[in-house]
């Protein structure tokens, strides 16, 4: 009783009733409630470019130490091109929609990685970079930053948004026709081909890449040698039955083409350790769970992360939640990849992604305030959030939801 | 029923306001603070009360999660409106807690009907409500409206809509309150049965 009075000591019953009419116009009419499309906040963004937590530099190639902890905006078309088939976490997509702008923070792991990639000698065998870190520290978003760089710098993107999806919840599993005892994931492979096509359609049109040999799919269907690579992709999308084989063929072709210096390739696989998980959730004919190497999609992606080709970079991430229960004790690459995986990748460049620094944390809080996401800014709330979230990006995002 | 004698004072939870009441409370015994109250940014008195009403089978953490989700949905819709509207942006309230308080204040009833037997006939007699009971009814109605939904709709979603509706003086809860008031008004002739 007294608790309530404290809060509404100034509100007598009568004044409440009077207030009602004053409140009513404050909220838009219910007709507007159902609309989901959001108009861009034009007035805000123009002035916001000068904020201390934002930077106007939208090209990731130009980011440097100066821009650490600042937000840059991914232009709408580029976001659509790179991330329409996945690549940003679902909740981040939701945030982008609410905030009407796709902003990424420039963080030091991404800068470190970009620095390596920029200075890499592409004539040498492909270098593998492995992002690792605890849950929710921004491995995927670091990868997104690098992908944006790759897309702008004419890398062909071979991007798997979340590899464990294939092992954990495939759309459909069928026995492979070409390889005895193997399992095909036709729908997932076709979806990946669509993703590949949307990411690289422009560049593929420009480069005019050709297949090196003839691929015979069945008695009547074949792709001749010298056909454009796009034809191969289209075939996989149109004939879902052969999507897995097409993917394997495409990746092999890309490796050859890159080694022949016709194009440069950026491989980005999120949750790479899923390929080395002891078991999957897919059942074979005799009701046994199959291992990842019995899936036809695994081998091509392992091949393209090998070091026997040039003119490419591999950005991989190992993630605790790519594993299942019982295999999630540590986030270190050696543990997550296991012996086989570690030996497959060895030697690689590990890049640690950590929690926010103080500067990044404050910058994020400022960004949330600017977007009106934190509407109850009581004195000292940053301190409390810092303490409760341990400056972990995901935890912070979760905590701030109800504020 | 309280376990404390009536001369015990309520505890002051907010750290900032403790200094102000220190002299006043120096020699008065004070009730122990409840374990669900805290001086954090996530704590609101009314919010806390609503969480208790949402709780089923003692699963408080789930109730907390549901209310947080409700606030998230409210914030998202309000920010969307903010971005859509070109003029009078300042008038749009984005703060979900403020909207919740507005909604509850708007749906609080003043009177209630209670059956009183006079001369062998039961009359529906309007009687005034205590403040506590009116808060309870307002929150209960909001929740009832939110729980009356399709199975596929989640509670936070529906609760968010009900809160937004009630905050601008529309919706089912407000209608329910107005109906009750109208009935009380039509039964005003029986009002004296309360005491005679």
From TrEMBL, chain A:
Keyword terms of this UniProt record: Mitochondrion, Ribonucleoprotein, Ribosomal protein, Transit peptide
Localization in the cell: Mitochondrion
Pfam families in alphabetical order: DAP3
InterPro entries to which the protein is assigned, alphabetical: Ribosomal_mS29 (IPR019368), Ribosomal_mS29_met (IPR008092)
Primary location class: mitochondrion
Coiled-coil intervals, chain numbering: none
Gene Ontology terms: cellular component: mitochondrial small ribosomal subunit
Record-level GO BP terms: apoptotic process
GO MF, any single term: structural constituent of ribosome
Family: Belongs to the mitochondrion-specific ribosomal protein mS29 family.
Protein's name according to its UniProt entry: Small ribosomal subunit protein mS29
Gene: Dgri\GH20533
UniProtKB/TrEMBL annotation, chain B:
Keyword flag Ribonucleoprotein: yes
Gene Ontology CC: ribonucleoprotein complex; ribosome
Keywords from the UniProt entry: Ribonucleoprotein, Ribosomal protein
Biological processes per GO annotation: translation
Family: Belongs to the universal ribosomal protein uS7 family.
UniProt-listed InterPro entries: Ribosomal_uS7, Ribosomal_uS7_dom, Ribosomal_uS7_dom_sf
Record protein name field: GH13011
Recorded superkingdom: Eukaryota
UniProt domain Small ribosomal subunit protein uS7: residue ranges: 39-188
């Amino acid at each position: 009783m007294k608790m309530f009075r404290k809060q509404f000591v100034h509100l007598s019953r009568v004044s409440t009733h009077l207030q009602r009419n004053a409140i009513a116009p404050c909220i838009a009419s219910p007709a507007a409630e159902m609309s989901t499309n959001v108009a861009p906040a034009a007035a805000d963004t123009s002035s916001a470019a000068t904020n201390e937590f934002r930077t106007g530099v939208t090209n990731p190639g130009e980011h440097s130490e100066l821009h650490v902890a600042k937000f840059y905006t991914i232009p709408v078309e580029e976001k659509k091109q790179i991330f329409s088939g996945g690549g940003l976490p679902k909740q981040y997509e939701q945030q982008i929609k609410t905030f009407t702008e796709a902003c990424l923070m420039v963080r030091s792991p991404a800068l470190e990685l970009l620095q390596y990639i920029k200075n890499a000698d592409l004539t040498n065998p492909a270098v593998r970079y492995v992002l690792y870190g605890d849950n929710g520290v921004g491995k995927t978003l670091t990868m997104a930053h690098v992908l944006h760089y790759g897309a702008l710098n004419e890398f062909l993107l071979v991007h798997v948004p979340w590899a464990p999806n294939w092992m954990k919840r495939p759309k459909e599993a069928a026995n492979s026709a070409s390889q005895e005892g193997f399992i095909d994931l036709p729908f997932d492979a076709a979806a990946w081909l669509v993703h590949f096509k949307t990411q690289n359609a422009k560049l593929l049109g420009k480069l005019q890449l050709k297949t090196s040999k003839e691929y015979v799919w069945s008695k009547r269907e074949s792709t001749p040698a010298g056909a454009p690579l796009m034809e191969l992709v289209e075939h996989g999308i149109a004939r879902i039955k052969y999507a897995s084989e097409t993917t394997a063929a495409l990746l092999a072709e890309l490796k050859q083409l890159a080694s022949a210096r016709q194009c440069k390739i950026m491989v980005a696989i999120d949750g790479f350790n899923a390929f080395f998980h002891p078991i999957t959730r897919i059942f074979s004919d005799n009701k046994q769970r199959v291992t990842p190497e019995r899936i036809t999609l695994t081998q091509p992606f392992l091949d393209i992360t090998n070091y026997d080709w040039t003119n490419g970079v591999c950005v991989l991430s190992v993630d605790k939640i790519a594993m299942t229960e019982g295999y999630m004790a540590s986030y270190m690459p050696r543990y997550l990849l296991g012996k086989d995986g570690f030996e497959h990748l060895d030697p690689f460049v590990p890049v640690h992604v950590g929690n926010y620094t103080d500067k990044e944390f404050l910058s994020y809080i400022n960004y949330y305030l600017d977007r009106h996401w934190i509407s109850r800014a009581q004195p000292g709330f940053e301190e409390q959030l810092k303490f409760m979230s341990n400056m972990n990006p995901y935890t912070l995002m979760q905590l701030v939801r109800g504020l | 029923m309280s376990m404390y004698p009536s001369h015990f004072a309520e505890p002051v939870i907010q750290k900032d306001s403790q200094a102000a009441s220190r002299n006043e409370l120096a020699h008065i015994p004070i009730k122990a603070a409840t374990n669900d109250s805290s001086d954090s940014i996530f704590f609101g008195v009314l919010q806390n009360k609503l969480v208790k009403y949402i709780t089923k089978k003692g699963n408080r953490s789930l109730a907390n999660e549901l209310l947080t989700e409700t606030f998230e949905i409210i914030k998202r819709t309000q920010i969307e409106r903010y971005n859509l509207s070109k003029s009078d942006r300042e008038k749009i309230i984005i703060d979900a807690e403020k909207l919740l308080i507005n909604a509850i204040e708007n749906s609080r009833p003043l009177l209630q009907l209670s059956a009183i037997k006079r001369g062998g006939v039961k009359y529906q007699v309007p009687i005034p409500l205590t403040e506590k009971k009116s808060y309870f009814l307002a929150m209960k109605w909001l929740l009832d409206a939110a729980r009356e939904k399709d199975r596929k709709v989640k509670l936070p979603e529906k609760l968010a809509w009900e809160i937004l509706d009630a905050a601008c003086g529309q919706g089912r809860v407000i209608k329910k309150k107005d109906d009750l008031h109208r009935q009380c008004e039509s039964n005003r002739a029986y009002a004296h049965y309360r005491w005679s």
